[in-house]
Every structure is written in C-alpha cells, then in structure tokens.
Amino acid sequence: MSSSSPEDEDCVVAVKFLGPQLSFCRPAQSNPEWTNVRIRNQCFYSSRVMFSEKDEMFCLPGSGGYLIGSWGLHELKDKPKIHRLQFQNLPELTKTKREVLHSCSSTEHLVESRSTGETFLLKWYRKATTRGAVKMKTRALMVFKLEEEGNAVYTRDIGDLRIFLSNSEPFCVPASSFDLYPNSVQLWDFDEFAYVFIDSSGIRTHNLTYVAPYYIPPQNKI
C-alpha cells in the first residue's frame, strides 16, 4: 500500500501475481476498480512489489536491476523504467562457495530504511534439503546498498538496523529501539526460520513448518 491505511483517499493498493500481471486499486474510492498492468520483462515475473516512500513509486526487484514506476499514483500515465544496477565491491569467493551459490535458487528483495533513508537489495540463496520432506534452507544472503547513481554496493555493515524478510513486504527497524541484535536479517518462510549476521555471514537456521510466516512492521499507537 502507498499509505498505512486503505481508508486514506489517496491510498493505492498494489498486488503482484506470479507472472506478468501487476494490479492496482484505490480502495477508498466510492466505486473502486482494479487496473491491470502487464510487465513484459520475465526477470520480474516472480518479484514482489514494494512501495518506495522516498520516491513515491512502486518498485519490483529483479536479477540485474529493478523496475520502478509511479503506477496508480498518477493515473497510470508514467511508464515503468528499468534501472540497471552496477554491482560493486563484490566479495572474493572460494571455488567451493561459488559452487554452492550456483546450486541454489535465488530471489531478490528491496527494503527501505525509514530511519536512515537508505535502500537495500537483498539476494537470498536457498537450497532444498535432502533429508526427509523437501524443505528449503538458507545457504547465503548478500546485502547491497543502492546508490542514486545506479550502483549496488555490497556491504557487511548496515549499522543499527535489523531487516525482516518474510512473505509480506520486507522492512527494517533501528535495532537499538527494539532491543534487537543490529546489522542482521531475520528470515521467515513457510518451511524455515533463520537469522543472518551480516558482518560475519553467519547463519542460524531451523526447518519447521509455519502456517502464516508474515512479519508486520511496528505500527503507531494512538
């Protein structure tokens, strides 16, 4: 959503389907209707939509870049633009580590920090377990800080932040404000719960079954 409440007159709700369809609606209108947009580039078919408060636009992360557009905010007049990313400061990987990453399935996720104004791109690498029922297990997580020039700079330091990545929209909070371990990512999926410590690339993971793996960001209390 483009605001914290669907009752806001200017609120736009975006729904991303698996495949090319992206749909928008203004729920506060007297007769709300859905507007459908088709994304032609297949690298965004499995992406999750994110609303950027900084740019007031909806974004879709994809391999090699991200799609950005003001769909739904300006009567759908603006065409989406693909921002190609230049990945910088990439870590040197051993042959074994490269082979592990190549054997994994990967997804890309965008997350904004409201407290610092930074935007991060997360590449989440997972691989199916071979024991018992097939479940996915996190093998690596790479964090990139996005710069206005289009650079995606690999980093092991996001400061006093913890990122929450689940089946809802990713978000991050100041760790010290919630008595959390900083510079870390908390992951939650239907078959896994994990912590990633960014500075050391350490991973703590547990394979369990979860019915509703959705993190909800902190809300303002009235």
Question: What do you see in this structure?
Answer:
This protein has a domain at 1-83. A hairpin with a 4-residue loop joins strand 1 (13-16) and strand 2. The protein is built from 1 helix and 17 strands. The model has no long low-confidence stretch (mean pLDDT 89). The strands form 4 sheets. A 5-stranded mixed β-sheet has the order 8-12-11-10-9, with helices on one face. By secondary structure, the chain is mainly β. The two termini are 20 Å apart.
The neighbouring-strand order within the major sheet is: 8-12-11-10-9
Largest sheet: 5 strands, mixed
Number of helical regions = 1
What shape does the CA trace take?
globular
Strand coverage percent: 35-45%
Radius of gyration: 18 Å
- SSE order: EEEEEEEEHEEEEEEEEE
- Helix fraction, binned, reads under 10%
Mean pLDDT: 89
Specify the structural class.
mainly beta
The number of E-state strands comes to 17
* CA distance, first residue to last residue: 20 Å
Q: List segments where confidence is low: pLDDT < 50 over at least 5 consecutive residues.
A: none
Organism: Arabis alpina (Alpine rock-cress)
Protein name: KIB1-4 beta-propeller domain-containing protein
